[in-house]
Design brief:
Blueprint lengths: L7 H20 L4 H8 L3 H9 L6 H11 L3 H5 L14 E2 L5 E4 L8 E7 L7 E2 L3 E8 L2 E5 L2 E5 L3 E6 L4 E5 L5 E7 L7 E2 L24 E2 L1
Antiparallel strand pairs: 1-2, 2-3, 3-10, 4-11, 5-8, 5-10, 6-7, 6-9, 8-12
């Protein structure tokens, strides 16, 4: 892509953005059509940016960074060569929850450390597979109409096409490691029966459910 700049370094940075965007999209298993629906950017524009036939301006990069769940500077410049360290950037969410991405680029698996504050249960469904490990506190996990309570060192894994929700089991925050697949961030609020029908927070299953929380 020729921008008319006489700065070779700037030209190199701009030329690298398109291929980087294509890799991010393909790693997440997204089509151009799906990304266009998420960002509001037309398929033709996305294609031209990825191929280097259109200059990636801020009004294009900002929604793309949000869609790919990466910082804007990660789209503009790759991490320093040979440096494997991930520079953590905690994100404060609603009601005091904190999300810390532990992987620099979304791929087949994304890893997060989360501190979840008490919140209202709202089961969701989406494509993918999730794995949760409790670091501190007590985690409440709702799968369909079943409920489970996990303590530190316990693990749960499940198919996310089943309605699910997880958060603190009581009034204190819970700290977890959270892994999920490339499309695990496309959650939608489930419309259906109230979760009041789920077992109470102190309920203990008498038979092993699927998935089965296990002690690590």
């Amino acid at each position: 892509m020729n921008t008319g700049s006489t700065d070779p370094e700037l030209e190199r940075i701009l030329d690298d953005i398109g291929p980087r965007l294509r890799r991010l999209r393909q790693d997440r298993g997204l089509t151009l059509e799906a990304l266009a629906a998420t960002t509001g950017i037309s398929v033709s524009t996305l294609s031209r940016v990825e191929s280097g036939r259109r200059r990636p301006t801020l009004d294009l990069l900002i929604p793309l960074a949000r869609a790919h769940r990466v910082a804007l500077d990660q789209l503009v410049a790759a991490p320093a060569s040979g440096d494997p360290r991930v520079h953590l950037q905690p994100l404060r969410k609603e009601r005091g929850s904190i999300l810390v991405p532990l992987t620099q680029y979304p791929g087949r698996v994304q890893v997060f450390k989360q501190v979840l504050a008490p919140r209202r249960p709202e089961p969701v469904t989406h494509e993918g597979y999730e794995w949760l490990y409790v670091l501190a506190g007590r985690l409440r996990l709702i799968l369909g109409e079943k409920g489970f309570t996990l303590g530190p060192g316990e693990v749960a894994e499940f198919d996310t096409t089943e309605p699910h929700w997880f958060g603190p089991a009581d009034t204190s925050a819970v700290e977890i490691l959270h892994l999920f697949g490339p499309r695990g961030d496309q959650a939608v609020v489930r419309a259906g029966p109230s979760v009041d029908a789920a077992p109470s927070a102190d309920a203990t299953p008498t038979t092993p459910p699927h998935p089965q929380p296990a002690t690590s």
